[in-house]
Design a protein that fits this description.
About 25% of the residues lie in helices and about 25% in strands. It has 3 helices and 6 strands; from the N terminus they run E-E-E-H-E-H-E-H-E. It starts with a strand and ends with a strand.
Length: about 110
């Protein structure tokens, strides 16, 4: 399974960025072997539509789940249409969050 996380840094020890559409990086983690890829958010400076563009980007990379601090309604709708689960209100490092997800301990999920 691939999980896309809005990130402040480029590795698994980076902290989750609270903003989905305007995060600096997306870290996409394969939970089977904890391999990951990091992508710059090229749409961070868009005047509008950054969340939609971010949602389309992570969906195009094969993400099954998005974990972030906050995700706007347009991005949620775009992710939902792509069949991607959205989990919000998350903090901490990417590694801790992936471990919590695998253990079933993440608390708030948006319906997709």
């Amino acid at each position: 399974m691939k999980i896309a996380i809005s990130s402040m840094g480029r590795d698994l020890d980076a902290h989750i960025e609270p903003r989905f559409g305007r995060c600096v990086y997306f870290v996409i983690v394969d939970t089977d072997d904890m391999s990951f890829e990091t992508f710059d958010n090229e749409d961070i400076a868009l005047g509008g539509g950054a969340g939609i563009q971010a949602a389309q980007f992570v969906a195009s990379k094969g993400a099954n789940v998005v974990i972030t601090g906050n995700c706007g309604p347009n991005a949620v709708r775009t992710l939902s249409a792509a069949g991607v689960e959205v989990i919000v209100d998350q903090k901490g490092t990417i590694r801790e969050t992936i471990d919590n997800y695998k253990e079933g301990n993440l608390s708030q999920s948006l319906e997709t």
